[in-house]
Amino acid sequence: MKTTIKMFMVIMFLTSLLVTVSFASPLYIYSDNTWKSYSNTKTDITDWETLNFDDSGWRDAYAPYPNSINGPGDWIPDTPSSYIWDWSKDGVPNGANGPNEAWFRKDFYLNWDPTYIQEATITINADDRFDLYINGTNLLTNQTGVSYGPYGIDIMDYLLEGNNVIAVHAWDGYDQGPENRVYEWLLVEGKITPVPEPATIILLGFGLLGAGIHGRRKFRK
Ligand SMILES: [Ca+2]
Ligand SMILES: [Ca+2]
Which residues, in sequence order, are CB contacts of 115 under 8 Å at separation 6+? Predict the structure, then answer.
């Protein structure tokens, strides 16, 4: 075999190895002031949890929102999340003077076909209760109270290629009565991890094929 072809195959094989170890970066989701928030009576909102809802009239969530927790819930490394809540008034909240009930939305864009997601988890907690939706599907209604969290939710089966939305309805206190009406907050940390892209796997195949042909020809000499 000509040296140039051998060289080509060796280079192709080495390149395939390099590509194989370069995974696409995970997508992180975390609560901060890029979320949209709202508070008013429930009757004012319809389909607020769905992907196509227009939240342009909502406020930016207030973050970091004051809270009573010692140390942030840094459940996932690389997510610089903040405690958030809705704040429609002037001045600065003290963690206890916001609305008892608030709604939150955050859009995120997924580059990958959901088939190629390895793991997708949202870790969430709120003081005191919350409903979590992904693209309009209610994945958790927490009625047990803030002290039992945080809650880790697998969202893999509910993700879409392209636009997605995470939506949370949270309330300070308890449906049947007041509870911990001292602080109100929502904290979210999420991570979506892709598997190696299909293009990468095909390249690896070509690389191994190249190496295999090379090896067999060498053996026959
Ligand atoms: Ca974090
Ligand atoms: Ca509370």
Answer: none
